[in-house]
């Protein structure tokens, strides 16, 4: 197995995501850093910090020069960051020492790498958000269409009360909707970093804040208004949201693992995974991936909880490099698999309805106890229904039938009620459709 299943040749169809993976390639990282370096030089040239002609030259060159990522390996191994080796390689490739001397003027490695990460995250989060919006549309359609399709609600693995398939789609959908809202709120806050070696910006020029604001505008990122070298709130929020995306997918995944069981079979997925020895098997691969990704993301996110010490913290920063790509890829894959699973979903409506009234029909116990409580104190009503439920089990007779025989005047008209389930389903469908497009634009790093 590859060190990471996300880019494994064997597992790339199971866990991999080529579209997102390109944003976390070495080539994309270098390209993003070069975009930052070029925009910084052009900004400083316009503001008179460096010669304007050099700023324009460097900005153009950063769009044209090609750097081999492998050529930076020795430098990164020695220096712990890629910018020193990258800047050295760029200066050599420029073959224009009069301009090359102004490259990376006054900034520090973390400024360039963090800003480059924000560029890539902007694209990545827009992709994830778009996928989740697709899933929301499918969930809204299902919730509305199946709002009154009877289905047993389950608690603690037991049949509980009658509900609807649409209400379950809403239960899957609300966490997805919240994740979309959180992604939409985070993307505009992805901020440029430009603070210099110790966060003071002292070598950037007479007005470092103006340079930072202009660089933010040039890159289409937010201006944080301060140094965030050691304040990693944006990274921890990213981790929390990526984990939330996977947990939203895992809610559907966990329920699908139960409801597609061969002894339940209330839901089916169009085609399942094959067994090496059991020809009858249709294993729920997609739902299993959703659950596994949530477990992975929740564990990985915990590594980012420690505060960064001093003005800059190498160990904390390195930890982000180990964790962030996997978190984003997990969220993106989860969003993709969720959408695919919903597109394949096939409910057995007759089977779901039959389960509600299947002997001994104990799912009606709550409604029966409340109906009986109109004739006697509620504790006594609950005890009586519990007694009759035991008899229904032993005799394999429907509980409503036994209660009706014991209390012939009892009003049993609400046994078939789905309560608020249809309304819940339709409320979610309305909310999901109000989300809108929500997709953002990013810089092309390919």
TrEMBL record:
**Adenylosuccinate lyase C-terminal domain mapped to chain residues:** 360-429
> What SUPFAM superfamilies does its record include?
L-aspartase-like
Name of the protein in its database record: 3-carboxy-cis,cis-muconate cycloisomerase
Query: In this entry, which stretches build a coiled coil?
Result: none
Which terms in the Gene Ontology molecular function aspect does this entry carry?
Answer: catalytic activity
Domain of life the protein comes from: Bacteria
| Gene this protein is translated from | pcaB
Q: By its UniProt entry, which Pfam families does this protein fall under?
A: Lyase_1 (PF00206)
**Similarity annotation:** Belongs to the class-II fumarase/aspartase family.
């Amino acid at each position: 197995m590859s060190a990471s299943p996300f880019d494994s040749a064997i597992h790339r169809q199971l866990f991999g995501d080529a579209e997102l993976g390109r944003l976390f390639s070495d080539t994309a990282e270098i390209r993003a850093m070069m975009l930052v370096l070029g925009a910084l030089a052009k900004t400083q040239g316009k503001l008179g910090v460096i010669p304007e002609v050099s700023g324009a030259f460097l900005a153009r060159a950063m769009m044209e020069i090609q750097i081999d990522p492998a050529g930076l390996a020795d430098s990164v191994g020695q220096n712990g960051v890629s910018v020193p080796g990258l800047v050295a390689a760029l200066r050599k490739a420029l073959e224009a020492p009069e301009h090359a001397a102004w490259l990376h003027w006054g900034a520090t490695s973390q400024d360039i790498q963090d800003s480059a990460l924000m560029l890539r995250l902007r694209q990545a989060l827009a992709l994830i958000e778009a996928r989740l919006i697709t899933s929301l549309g499918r969930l809204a359609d299902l919730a509305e269409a199946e709002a009154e399709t009877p289905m047993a609600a389950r608690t603690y693995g037991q049949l509980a009360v009658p509900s609807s398939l649409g209400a379950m789609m809403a239960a899957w959908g609300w966490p997805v909707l919240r994740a979309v809202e959180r992604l939409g709120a985070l993307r505009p806050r992805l901020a440029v970093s430009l603070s210099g070696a110790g966060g003071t910006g002292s070598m950037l020029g007479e007005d470092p804040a103006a340079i930072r604001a202009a660089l933010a505008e040039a890159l289409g990122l937010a201006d944080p208004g301060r140094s965030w070298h050691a304040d990693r709130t944006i990274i921890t929020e990213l981790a929390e949201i990526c984990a939330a995306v996977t947990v939203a997918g895992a809610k559907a995944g966990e329920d699908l693992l139960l409801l597609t069981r061969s002894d339940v079979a209330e839901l089916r997925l169009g085609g399942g995974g094959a067994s090496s020895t059991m020809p009858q098997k249709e294993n729920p691969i997609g739902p299993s991936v959703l659950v596994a990704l949530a477990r992975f993301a929740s564990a990985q996110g915990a590594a980012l909880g420690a505060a960064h010490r001093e003005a800059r913290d190498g160990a904390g920063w390195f930890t982000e490099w180990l964790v962030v790509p996997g978190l984003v890829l997990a969220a993106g894959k989860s969003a993709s698999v969720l959408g695919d699973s919903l597109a394949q979903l096939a409910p057995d409506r007759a089977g779901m309805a039959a389960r509600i009234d299947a002997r001994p029909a104990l799912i009606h116990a709550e409604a029966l106890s409340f109906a009986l409580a109109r004739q006697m104190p509620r504790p006594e009503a609950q005890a009586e229904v519990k007694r009759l439920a035991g008899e229904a089990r032993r005799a394999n007779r429907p509980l409503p039938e036994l209660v009706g025989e014991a209390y012939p005047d009892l009003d049993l008209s609400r046994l078939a009620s789905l309560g608020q389930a249809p309304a819940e389903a339709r409320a979610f469908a309305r909310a999901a459709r109000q989300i809108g497009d929500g997709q953002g634009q990013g810089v092309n790093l390919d």
